[in-house]
Specification:
The protein has a 13-stranded mixed β-sheet with strand order 1-20-19-18-15-12-11-9-10-8-6-5-2, sandwiched between helices. A 3-stranded mixed β-sheet has the order 3-4-7, with no helix packed on it. Strands 13-14 form a two-stranded parallel sheet. It is built from 18 helices and 20 strands. The chain is 30% helix and 16% strand. It has a domain of 238 residues: Alpha/Beta hydrolase fold, catalytic domain (Rossmann fold). The radius of gyration is 23 Å and the shape is globular. α9 crosses α10 and α12 packs across α13. By secondary structure, it is an alpha/beta fold.
Length: 561
């Protein structure tokens, strides 16, 4: 079966920028000689026992297991329970334990509303989210490593999950698993859970006094605490604490950008990789504190009664905070932005005010960045086949009212549509709608900001499309994760599996591993990958055909204003 894809159209219309680079690589599947899993044998592949996979941490010993020659540890505590008196407080160290603690199962997901999480059968099938117990005792992390305490200075990757600061966990998709990348690259892979939403980002400092001065950023401080754990303990898991790459997708991309701008994380981060999400500023504190006032008012409490918020069941508090935010929005209080009111706050202490990366010598001045997004983050016809037949006039009318999750383009809709149609002349109306809704403005804004600092920036644009759902999935939000992590044969409902996606995963995972080692993603399997510059907007197109280009959608983006 041959699937019609927009990637061929894109490559045909690159123009002089791509030709000037002179690099087009045909990435066929026939040359792929390796597999995403260890070779199959008739021997035992899982080992667990009293003397197997025992590792030291600063708080006590933990027991994991060995699967296909990779050590795995699940649910290691890096912080104490955040419930009760610890709610809204900075993370505390976990209590030390005697003996050996089992680290055999995932830690709890952070408090979040789980009702109707699986309401859409198509998305539930495709993404098959993994959720386990939800509680405030959620400061746990997972480790995959080829060896323990062997003196190996292996690069370390720390993964921050998506979910827009409100939802998600460290293992919510099978594509997040670290086994294959750890094996392939001889690296240590770490993933974490941390506080989310109103539990992690309610700024009560304006109504709660000094005791609650950190409350707006405790979720971000959790993320720093995990890096501190890595610094202190990862050598016991074969890793190099002085070579740590942080990586995240969607909300996780915004998380890693935020961490790279936090003074407390200075020296704990050595490379940063935001995917399909980034951030150049935190939430305005005046807005965040006003939301804190609305929370107290919604609870019917006076400032001297604020401690009662620590005793509420977590779900009751989440619902209460949500009602407070709705009333704040109804009252027209500005400052929350599209993402809502529960995310990191520019308090001037933990997170500096103003634009991230705005000066040389700043927190992450020497930290290289690799930033990527997908062609069709919001593939709006995925569950609606009728949208494939939409006409140009109908597309322009819809874009006028709505663009993905954002407000519509109004009277500018037709001009924006025409600009993208000129850049992608063989794209259908639905493909143009997806490209507009998935535009690269945020990626370019973040890359441009990071160029104020000394370290290099590398940009990518992922355009690979699976041959499923009649081609309607396109290169959707989350799809590229399993390619970076060499998990395309594990995340079958995203890729279909087999040689075609694996061929691209070989190249992308190699590039990520090289970036982790050196801060430069260039490998022999890809065309030469130039550094990003504000002037030329260099970007690597990742697809069956990989190609370096110079800002191919610049004129189309300009129409967005």
């Amino acid at each position: 079966m041959t699937m019609k894809t927009n990637r061929r159209n894109f490559i045909q219309t690159m123009g002089a920028g791509a030709a000037g680079m002179g690099f087009i690589s045909a990435m066929g599947v026939s040359g792929c000689a390796t597999s995403e899993t260890a070779p199959e044998t008739d021997g035992q592949v899982l080992f667990i026992g009293d003397e197997i996979a025992i590792a030291d941490t600063q708080y006590g010993r933990v027991q994991g297991f060995i699967l296909r020659d990779i050590f795995q540890f699940r649910g290691i505590p890096y912080g104490a329970d955040t419930g009760g008196k610890n709610r809204f407080m900075p993370p505390r160290k976990p209590e030390a334990w005697e003996g050996v603690r089992p680290a055999l199962w995932w830690g709890n997901s952070a408090p979040q509303i789980m009702d109707n999480r699986y309401a859409n059968p198509v998305y539930s099938y495709a993404d098959h989210w993994n959720y386990d117990d939800v509680s405030e005792d959620c400061l746990k992390l997972n480790v995959w490593t080829p060896a323990l305490a062997d003196g190996g200075k292996r690069p370390v990757l720390v993964w921050y999950h998506g979910g827009g600061f409100r939802n998600g966990n460290a293992i919510e998709q099978d594509g997040y698993m670290g086994e294959n990348l750890s094996r392939k690259g001889d690296v240590v892979f770490v993933s974490i859970n941390h506080r989310l939403g109103p539990i992690g980002f309610s700024d009560l400092s304006g109504v709660g006094g000094d005791k609650y001065k950190d409350s707006g950023n405790v979720g971000a401080l959790d993320m720093v605490a995990a890096l501190e754990w890595v610094k202190a303990n990862i050598a016991n898991f074969g890793g190099d604490p002085d070579n740590v790459t942080i990586m995240g997708q969607s909300g996780g991309g915004a998380k890693v950008c935020t961490l790279a701008a936090m003074p407390a994380a200075a020296g704990l981060i050595h490379k940063v990789v935001p995917l399909s999400g980034s951030s150049t500023e935190a939430l305005d504190q005046d807005y965040a504190q006003k939301l804190g006032e609305y929370i107290l008012r919604e609870a019917g409490l006076e400032p001297d009664e604020i401690d009662q918020l620590q005793q509420m069941p977590w779900k009751d508090y989440l619902l209460l905070a949500g009602r407070a935010q709705e009333k704040l929005n109804e009252d027209g209080v500005a400052g929350g932005g599209r993402r809502g009111g529960f995310r990191p706050v520019a308090d001037g202490v933990h997170i500096l005010k103003g634009t991230f990366f705005n000066e040389k010598g700043g927190v992450s001045d020497q930290v290289p960045m690799l930033i990527c997004s997908t062609f069709h983050e919001w593939a709006m016809s995925r569950t609606d086949p009728d949208m494939e037949k939409i006409s140009e006039a109908e597309a322009k009318a819809q874009l006028k009212e709505r663009i993905g999750f954002r407000a519509g383009l109004g009277d500018n809709a037709a001009d924006v549509y025409d600009a993208y149609a000129a850049a992608f002349p063989q794209a259908t109306p639905i493909e143009i709608m997806c490209l507009i809704a998935s535009n690269r403005q945020a990626v370019v804004r973040t890359a441009n900001a990071k160029k104020n600092q000394s370290a290099p920036v590398y940009a990518a644009w992922f355009g690979w499309e699976p041959d499923m759902f009649n081609g309607r999935m396109r290169s959707f939000h989350c799809l590229d994760i399993c390619f970076w992590f060499y998990n395309t044969d594990l995340m079958l409902t995203h890729t279909g599996g087999g040689g075609r996606p694996r061929a691209l995963a070989e190249k992308m995972s190699d590039a990520l591993l090289q970036f982790m080692r050196t801060g430069n993603p260039n490998t022999p399997a890809l065309p030469a990958w130039p550094e990003y510059s504000v002037e030329k907007g260099e970007v690597m197109i990742l697809d069956d055909l990989c190609q370096a280009a110079e800002d191919p959608d610049r004129e189309a983006r300009a129409a967005l204003g």
